[in-house]
Write a structure and sequence with these properties.
- This protein is mainly α and 180 residues long.
- It has a single domain, classed as Hypothetical protein af1432, CATH 1.10.3210.10.
- Helices cover 71% and strands 0% of the residues.
- The chain is built from nine helices and no strands.
- The termini are far apart.
């Protein structure tokens, strides 16, 4: 597992560094966090760690590769993932599984998650948003972002983080002092 995952990780880091030099945007910190959470979930749920790791590393590959196309980044990302993995002689059946992780990771484009690996990558993508506070200050407000990402999670992952979510929501939106 390590070899192919390490090769893809280096490729993604390289693309992210080039992207950051051109745009000033840091895509790697999000991808790295998604990979971390995805592997945690894969361990917990018994998913294939190699497929999950590759899906997580490649889930947003179209951004730093093409500098745009956000609305359909999951479609182009699956194509790029397939090209990269084919070039490394990765087995075709595994390529398809990784591509499905990329294709089905978006919460804003509801698609069935047909495997544990797809579920782990999609959930990890939503969980990563909880840890990127600057990205939460959007027009709909921080509360809307937290709630939307929480609702994107699979039922079992929502159960895992419900206490954390409730605490965050009560701290951020209660309007009450900690001293009372």
């Amino acid at each position: 597992m390590k070899n192919i995952v390490e090769i893809i990780e280096r490729e993604v880091i390289g693309r992210c560094k080039n992207y950051q030099e051109k745009t000033g945007e840091d895509e790697w910190s999000h991808i790295e966090l998604v990979a971390y959470y995805a592997l945690e979930l894969a361990e917990r749920y018994g998913a294939d760690k190699e497929i999950t790791a590759l899906g997580a590393l490649l889930h947003d590959i179209s951004g730093p590769s093409e500098y745009g196309a956000r609305e359909e980044h999951h479609i182009r990302g699956a194509e790029i993932a397939g090209q990269l993995l084919s070039g490394l002689d990765y087995p075709q059946d595994k390529i398809e599984r990784v591509k499905n992780c990329v294709l089905n990771h978006r919460g804003s484009v509801p698609k069935d998650k047909n495997t544990l690996e797809e579920e782990c990558v999609a959930d990890a993508d939503a969980l990563a948003h909880f840890d990127r506070y600057p990205g939460l200050f959007l027009p709909e407000g921080i509360e809307g972002k937290f709630e939307r990402d929480y609702n994107k999670l699979s039922e079992k992952t929502r159960g895992l983080i419900k206490d954390r979510y409730d605490i965050m929501m009560s701290i951020l939106f209660s309007g009450k002092s900690f001293l009372k």
